[in-house]
Task: inverse folding
């Protein structure tokens, strides 16, 4: 059963170890933006599109060093790639990495199906794409965003000229963490300053 009182320790979509602070919240209206997901699948690899993705992730892609790990509760096992440091990644940046990975695989398949003469590389590591679908499914269910969404405004008209109905989610208002605060904090705590997403 849900409760109205707020825990002194846990925050929805927050960090239970005490490493990350609480970030302020703001109301954000979702609007379509084809910069990240162009209509033409082959445009996904355009440098401007890839730069847009890099612009929304912090340096180090959320890989952070926890220097006082012995003072933290509930830490997962550290990432093995950093032998002399206690390093973890963050869920938000992992989710963005996974979404980019799925889009890369989808666009590779789409371009190849539309133009079989092209010799695009086959999807690398299909297990990674499957991992990403499952990871994002659990992240969506964890956050449980129940913002109300209205009628679709961007879906194409059906073949019969009728409105296809449903919701595209645009113009709905959501309670979100201040993304600029999250990026600034993660860049302050990063293990490296490399910009990458996949």
Result:
């Amino acid at each position: 059963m849900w409760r109205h009182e707020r825990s002194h320790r846990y925050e929805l979509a927050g960090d239970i170890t005490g490493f990350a602070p609480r970030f302020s919240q703001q109301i954000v209206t979702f609007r379509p933006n084809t910069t990240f997901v162009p209509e033409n699948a082959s445009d996904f690899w355009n440098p401007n599109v890839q730069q847009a993705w890099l612009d929304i992730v912090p340096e180090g892609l959320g890989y952070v060093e926890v220097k006082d790990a012995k003072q933290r509760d509930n830490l997962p096992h550290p990432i093995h790639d950093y032998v002399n440091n206690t390093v973890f990644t963050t869920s938000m940046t992992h989710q963005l990495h996974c979404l980019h990975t799925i889009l890369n695989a989808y666009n590779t398949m789409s371009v190849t199906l539309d133009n079989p003469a092209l010799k695009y590389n086959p999807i690398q590591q299909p297990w990674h794409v499957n991992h990403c679908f499952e990871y994002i499914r659990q992240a969506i269910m964890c956050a449980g965003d129940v913002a109300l969404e209205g009628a679709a405004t961007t879906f194409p008209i059906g073949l019969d000229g009728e409105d296809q109905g449903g919701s595209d989610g645009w113009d709905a208002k959501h309670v979100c963490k201040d993304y600029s605060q999250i990026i600034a904090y993660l860049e302050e705590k990063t293990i490296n300053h490399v910009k990458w997403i996949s």
